[in-house]
Amino acid sequence: MVESFHLKSLSEEDKLIVSKPFLSTEQIQQRIKELSAEISRDYEGKKLLSVGILRGAFMFFADLVRSIQVPMEVDFLNVSSYVKAETSGEIKIHTDLRENIRGKDILLIEDIVDTGLTLNYIKNMLLERQPASLRICAFLDKKPRRKADVALDYVGFEIPDEYIVGYGLDYDNKFRNLPYIAIFKKSL
Ligand code: IMP
């Protein structure tokens, strides 16, 4: 049982559900070091604009970009899936990018790729704006659930088909501030 202030105000049931890390803070930070070294090598001399997909990627984005050692600009897309996104992949853009991405090297930074429909939609939308290049970095890849064939250039961890929370990821906008990833076993 991991004791941390994050767990103190949770109900006994929620405490049990999220108290066991599936990926620990140490494992996450170690992987981020490896990913950022690779990204830093690949983007040397490029016009890097890192785009974080809100809300889920905020924590991964912050840790990753501070570890990347090439100059960059940052921007954010705030999106959510429509209820019918499972079939259509259509998403709602709450806040669009502020930057013009034409001619820039875009690194899309996402929390988790599940069906891949969200990322596919965003990728196609951004490609229409004619960036010089567009690559995708996903913290987690839930490969068994994939429906859209979207290529991932950098992946933190491949995970099984489980609903996970923590490190930015939520259930009903809760558990985002857990500093690790836990499997959320409640009946959804
Ligand atoms: P998609 O199915 O790849 O379109 O996933 C879209 C979004 O669903 C992700 O960006 C996450 O915000 C959310 N999501 C998918 N799986 C999980 C999960 O296991 N925990 C929390 N959020 C998830």
Q: What are its keywords?
A:
Rossmann fold, 188 residues, six-stranded mixed beta sheet, alpha/beta, 6 helices, 29% helix, binds inosinic acid, two-stranded antiparallel ribbon, 8 strands
What do you see in this structure?
The protein is α/β, with parallel strands linked by helices and 188 residues long. It has one domain (24-161): Rossmann fold (3-Layer(aba) Sandwich), CATH 3.40.50.2020. It has six helices and eight strands. The protein has a six-stranded mixed β-sheet, sandwiched between helices. The protein has a two-stranded antiparallel ribbon with strand order 7-8. Strand 4 (105-113), helix 6 (117-127) and strand 5 (133-141) form a beta-alpha-beta unit. The two termini are 24 Å apart. The site of inosinic acid (IMP) has 15 residues, from strand 4 and helix 6.
